Amino acid sequence: MTIFSAIGIAGTGATVHRKWLDAVSDNIANVNTARASDEAAYQEKRVLVEAVDYGAGTGGVRVAGAVNASSAEGRMVYEPDHPLADDDGYVRYPDIDLSSQMSQMIMAQRGYQANLAVVDRARETYLAALRIGSGG
Fold it and tell me: Per the count of CB atoms within 10 A, which of 63, 92, 100, 131 is most buried?
């Protein structure tokens, strides 16, 4: 593995963690999104990740897609004064656990930072090699 492949692999990891952060931020932003009882609730999004050239050590990872990880049924909450309430006074909210989303946000953020640190260290190593090669 060369320095450039290390930068490339860490770059793919940073991209995946950024997409994960995007999904988590959407989930957090919609945790209190109310819908009428006859509509589907906002569904938690999760990012699917797969290895590229698994076993070769040169491919990194990529986003394979996204899935809805919670039920469209959500949870029904009795709020008779809500403008979207049905005749019985119920409104549909997503079934998203905010504490889980916050934990996922921290993990995705730390993964993103770790991958950027790898890119930075590889760049420093490359620059040090250039200085040695130039006799400086």
Answer: 92
